[in-house]
Structures are given as structure tokens and as C-alpha cells.
Amino acid sequence: MSKRDKILSTLGLNVRERREARALTQEKLAERAGLDATYISGIERGLRNPGIKNVAKLAKALGLTTAELCQGVDA
Q1: Cβ contacts of residue 10 below 8 Å, gap of 6+?
Q2: Cα separation of 66 and 55, whole Å?
Q3: CATH entry, 3-68, from 1.10.260.40, 2.60.40.420, 2.60.40.10, 1.20.120.450
Q4: DSSP state, 6?
Q5: Cα separation, 48 vs 39, whole angstroms
Q6: Above pLDDT 70, what percent of the chain?
Q7: What is the DSSP letter of 34?
Q8: pLDDT per residue over 45-55, tens digit each?
């Protein structure tokens, strides 16, 4: 697995774990963040490389700081 894949996979896992801990569907998280549910799905599966603005939107929608959402995401 390349470093980029590991970065995206780790971020995606963080999003999924925190979303599920809050009993949110991908659709509900997408609505809160102002994003599309298919985009959330791609992020969680490590297939999408979200920009920092979208990472910040996701963090806010999950009640986290961007740093908390990115925990363990190392280049």
C-alpha cells in the first residue's frame, strides 16, 4: 500500500468510526457537512482525497476539530 493510500485509508477509517459512534448514516453526515453522501462513502473507503475545506466541514459536522479527525494521518 502506498503512503497516499495509507493516508486516505486512515482518514476514511477515522470518519467512519466517528460517524458510527454518533449513530449517523452517511446521508445524515453528508447533510450536516453540506456534502454528497456518495462523496462521504468514497472518503470512508479511502478512494477520495478530500481537500482541507471538506475535511474541516466533516470535522465540524462530527463535533470534532480537524486535528482530532486527522489523528493518526501521517505523511
Answers
A1: 72, 73, 74
A2: 7
A3: 1.10.260.40
A4: H
A5: 7
A6: 95
A7: T
A8: 999 999 999 99
